[in-house]
Every structure is written in structure tokens, then in C-alpha cells.
From TrEMBL:
Gene3D superfamilies: 1.10.1070.20. Residues 162-376 form the HipA-like C-terminal domain. It comes from Agarivorans albus MKT 106. Belongs to the HipA Ser/Thr kinase family. GO terms for cellular component: cytosol. This is Phosphatidylinositol kinase. InterPro entries: HipA-like_C, HipA_N1, HipA_Ser/Thr_kinase. It comes from the Bacteria. PANTHER family: SERINE/THREONINE-PROTEIN KINASE TOXIN HIPA, TOXIN YJJJ. Keywords: Kinase, Transferase. GO terms for molecular function: protein serine/threonine kinase activity. Residues 18-118 form the HipA N-terminal subdomain domain.
Amino acid sequence: MLKSALTVKRTLSTGEKVLVGKLVENSTQSFFQFDESYLSNHSTSLAPFNLKADTSLQVAPRGPHYGIHGVFGDSLPDGWGLYLMDRVFRKNDHNPKEVTALERLAYLGDRCMGALSYEPELDLLDELKQSIDIITLGRAAIEEFEGTESALLEHLMNTGGSGGARPKMNVTRLLNGQYSTLDDSPGTKLIVKLTSEKFDLKHSESLVEYCYMQMASNVGIEVPNFDLIDVGNGRFWLEQERFDCTEQDGRVHMISACGLLDAPFREPSLDYVDLVKATRIMCSVTESQKLIKRCMFNYLTVNQDDHSKNFSFLASDTDSWTLSPFYDIVYSPNPYKEHMTAFGGNGRTPKSALDQLAAQSGLSSKKAIMVMAEEIFETTRSFSHEAKHLGLSPNLIKEIDKDMLEKFKALSV
């Protein structure tokens, strides 16, 4: 347990850091308090639905964010990053089960996703002075994920702070096209998504996700800039630019639907109808209609792992909110054939919820949503050709294409 307050700062898009407030904890709870100077320049909250924009001492809910407010819970990594963090704590003779969420934030310091950082930092790793080849590090991460402990723990932890249960690396692409694993390297900040035999799609996952990102872009859905990294032996990793980073070495404040709505992400907890409503209230009617298109894309492409961490919102320096680019979109059928985010209470199909979705987003009728669906479906007809060109197996291509066709037919009947 931290004996002193943790200072929360926000990095603006310009790179300037501003004081936000303080986090404290006792043996049972944690609390947050905005700094008065921050509120004088930012009249709205970092988390508009569950943090009041005033200087009162605000107690955090016990769940689902490890006993801290959701906006700060978003600063913590998920399965992969937490696993690496636990290894670091054990290496330094700390029982991970006794480490509080605030202590984890202190350990991360300014290495979090998004614009928030925490001081003073809890320093447990030696400073890394040399970059390491990303293919070497990525292979070490995969071995670690598959059960073989790596001697490159410090490098893995330094690059492994992004969300998700599966191994990823935060790296920088330098102006010369090379990659650096050091935090302070100048260039384009990237997330590199690795593959593993333990994935449902095994080493084909990056290729499928590449196709899905391309399809989403083709129907006008904003996605991060993305590409494939050839790692040899016919295997590829997906790289995508981080939308929380700016060219001025600044950051963009980000909050997930999980953090915004206190919605657990390891179990079904959201409904698209409610998410569209929240988007309309916090952002605009236009953004809520963009979300409906993403909803239909997830349904038609069988991306059923659409949990509450896979929807995020970005705030400008003046706290104007928009949807983040679309991410984590890949073929992911659920054994129960249900989406993590339901459609008006139905986990399998949005058909009965189209009127509700239209009403919540200001669309004239469900016909407008069906127009979106038809456009998306037409774009999915190119999947087989693109996937074959990338070298995906004929059986996997056939399976995915068959499932997408069935989804559209079920919606159209």
C-alpha cells in the first residue's frame, strides 16, 4: 500500500504535462481528487460518466477496475502486461497478490497507454540504454507466452504495457525505417501484435486482422495506419500506429467503454443500444452513427470478441470527445455463437434491435442501418481473394467466408 499520494498528470498533444489531481489509498479503498488548477482549465471530467468535475474526494468503486476508478484502470495493461508485471514484482521479492493497483500505476509511471502518467515512479527495473532487435524480442515474447521464461524480461516489460491478453510490443519506427524498443526514441509510435500457436487462428491471426482492417477502411470506417512485418518462415506480425500519440511527442487522452461505463471486459456486460446512446451523449450524433457501422461490421465479420475494452474514446486538449479509430477487429467466433456486446439484449443478432439502434443515433429508420450492412457485406466479398493472396489456408478462408455469408443472410431474411 502506498503511504503517500500518487500524483496524476496528463500529457497534452503538444507534449506539455499538466497536473490533474491526486490518488490515495487506505487498507480498504482508493480515492481521487481533482486539482483546482486543472478544473480551472478543464471544466469537464476525464471520465464524464463516473468522475465529478469538482474538488471533492471521490471514492473508487471496488469493481471492475481493481479498486480504482475506471479511467485510471485503463492505464493498467491486461493479461499479457499484468503477467510480465507480476514477474517483475516476484523478481524484486514482492508478492503480486499483495501489490495494490496504485502501486502498479506507480511502477508504470509515464509508460501507460493514453495521456495519463503517475508520480513518483516505483523503480524496479534497470534503465535500458540499448534497443533490441524487434524480431528477436517478439520471438522471446511468444516463447514467454507459450510457457518458456525469457532472459529478456526487462525489454519485454518495457514494450509490453498495452492492453489485451495476448503478447504485443510498443515500439518506435524511426525515420530510417528501422525499429527501436526504447521509450524516448523519436519517430512513429507503434503497437506490434504478435502471433502464437496458442491462438485460435494460430499464426494466421495477423493476416486475418490485416484483411479485416483493410475491409473496414474500404467501407469508410477509420482505422489506425497498419501494415505487416515479415518475420520469416511465412509468418507475419501486424503493426498499427498508436492513436494516443502525436507527432509532437504528445499524447491524446483516451478512455475505453470499460473505463467510462464501469463495464467488465472479461464477461458480457455491454449492449450496443446503450453504447450508442453513451456515444451520442458524450460525443455527437455523428459519432453514434459511426459506432452503428462498427457494430454491423463486427456482426457481419463474426468479430464476437467485441468486449468493452475494444471500444474507446479520445479527448482533444479542450476535451472534445470522438470515437477512437476502430481496432482489435478479427474473426473470433464465440463457442456459444454470441457477441460479448449484445444487440438490444440479444447476443446473436442485431435484427430485432435495428429500430432501437436507429432511434438512439438519430437515423430515420432501420433501413439506413441495412444500407450500411449491405455496403459492408459487399466489401466482405473481396475477403477470399485478398486472403488467398496473403497465403491463408483455403480451409480457413472457406470457413470465414461461409460464416460471413450466413450472417448477412440471417439479417436479410
